[in-house]
Amino acid sequence: PAPAPALAAAAGQYAYPRATLAMAWRDMLLNQFHDVLPGSCIKDVFDDAQRLYGQVRAALSPIVKESVNALCAKVGKPLTGDDSTRQVVLFNSLGFERTEVLTVTHPDTHTPALTLVTTPPFGMVSIALPPATAAVRAEESLAGHGPASAVQTGDVFVLENDAIKATVSQRGQLVSLIHKQTGREALSGPGNRLMLYDDIPLFWDAWDTMEYSFETGKAQQAATVTLHETGSLRASVHVEVRVGLKSVLKQTISLAAPDSMVKFETTVAWHENRKMLRVAFDADVLTDTAVYETQYGAIRRPTHENTSWDVARFEVAAQRWMALEEHGFGLALLADCKYGYAADGQTMYLSLLRSSKAPDAEADMGLHHFTYALMPYAGCWQSARVLQAGQALTRPLVAIASPIAVPPVSFFTVTPDVVVLDTVKPAEDCPDAIVLRLYEPYGGKARNVRISTTLPVIACKRVTILEDPHPDGSIVTLEAGAVLVREIKPFQVITLSLTLQGRV
């Protein structure tokens, strides 16, 4: 879960549920088995995996809520009266400040309400929702950001904010994406093209995808597009597309006021037979390599098929995003739970769904929910913070109704911000220690990294990933309660153990 349980325990307000989390972690790791993960298991195994994931969710949801409430009690102030009923606490599990449009349930009406929030890095803050009957001026709700807008002009729909202008056709395709800072058109052809392919491997149905399948792609044409949200915080259109013979895709294409990306929130009722669904975007970016995020870094791969090795990479795995970029400009494709990417020349692809029939004839049939996004940017992916955009897409803010007012507080801050604090957890064998895992994601040395914390740290050391003492521990020192790391090498992962006053 989010690091709230570890932080609450470290703050001395919460008994860390180690046994419950260990059981949930074990069940989750069991479902990382090599036939469960890619969907090549038999139906009985799939049913077991669904049951175990349901148990994990049921175990973790109350733990996150209880630990966030414990942190609120530590750093906040209780409220009374009507103010207490409209208070929402936000927990940010990422190491950078986030400004986002958030959908919350308004306590007065019990209906969804939009609000613009800013949360500190690896920290929390509370917001007070206005009464449902209160009139809030647009400039107040936007907090200094320009408004988002959605209008229909002829047979197209235009979504716009201060950063980008996106045009959606009556087919639900993205026909233009203007990056305002550079004035660049990011697309060379229609984007958000939903392509359906015959998916019939020679031998192993659920295991293999053959290159020749991608010669059979057919764009799904018939769509219904309507304006959905036209407010100043978020603008969107709703798209409904018939896919194949039996499937229906519904999509909300949205642009929020502070965002620099267009999001495609998608629901698919999937009932096809040996078909594969991908989405394609034609980028107006000239390059012979694409960048793909890996677990703790990024890698460049060719966008052409000059060698047999290149041909074999007709689809590759990426963690949260891929990008095409030339000097000074790029275009990134991000996803919250899809990992099969491809780049063919200037076209980017993301694999969405398959419908293999062996060994499980019902594999992937039913309802699917996922989100992908398209982000044009100036400069390079490192300076444009594509990595952070991918993190935010996959790790939403935790929002919990609470009668406690919490000022902005960061439990950890890392400077310079070229290092990612990825993990915060209790030490396995030391009851008075908390473990941090950091990495350098950009491919360059990070020097004199400072990790500041509100926790009472009295000692620190470098450890291995198994939390044994590391032979090169001299790079880590403690200075005025802050941890200093002399150097982190390109793409290096380091683990630190911090000893605290009190018990975790």
What does this protein look like?
This protein has 504 residues and is α+β, with helices and mostly antiparallel strands. It contains seven helices and 36 strands. The protein has a nine-stranded antiparallel sheet, with helices on one face. Strand 7 (156-160) and strand 8 (164-168) form a beta hairpin.
Adjacency order of strands in the biggest sheet:
13-14-15-16-25-22-21-18-19
What do the pLDDT scores average to? 93
The helical percent reads 10-25%
Termini Cα gap = 17 Å
Give the class from helix and strand content and strand pairing: alpha+beta
**Cα Rg:** 24 Å
Shape assignment: globular
Beta-strand percentage range: 35-45%
Largest sheet: 9 strands, antiparallel
State the low-pLDDT regions, or none. Answer: none
Specify the number of helices. 7
Number of strands: 36
